[in-house]
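Whether sequence alone determines local backbone shape is best considered at the level of individual chains. The sequence in question and its structure tokens are set out directly beneath this paragraph.

***
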Amino acid sequence: MTFSVLVTGGTRSGKSIFAEKYAKRLSNSPVYIATAEEFDVEMKNRIARHKARRGVNWKTVNEPLHIAEALNDTDGQGASVVDCLTMWLNNLIMANLSIDISVEKLIEAIAKRRDPVILVTNEVGSGIVPDNALARSFRDQAGTMNQKIARAVDELYFCVSGISLRVKPEIETTHKK
């Protein structure tokens, strides 16, 4: 395994931009594994903005469900960014696929990678408790998934207002006596 990074934060916190810049420091031609699908005009426009921002040096792989396989298939092609795990979770739920099995496959793929992988996810548990069971279930599943991935990666960053904070590994301090 080379190394892996999880980038989390709220909506428009700068997660994707941070992940893209990180990958560009590691590889001249990184791989972007996109989990979003163009379900409507707004999402189509959002995807187009992401592509335009990345530029032409990126290889894009559209994979809404099987990102472990996409990571395996693209290993050896440079650093990869997976954006985003929260959308992937939504896709798994809509396809009625096992979240536990899919997350375990993802963790195994991360561990086997030779090239770095940077995963982007949303922190959805910091807001108010949703008013309906479906939204609460999604929030809980996202939180559980994020915890499992966070334990499996080497570095964890939290983005807020366009600023990234390194959370893992914790910065060790020594105190002189």
DSSP finds six helices and seven strands in the chain. Residues 82 and 123 are 16 Å apart (CA to CA). The longest strand covers residues 4-9.
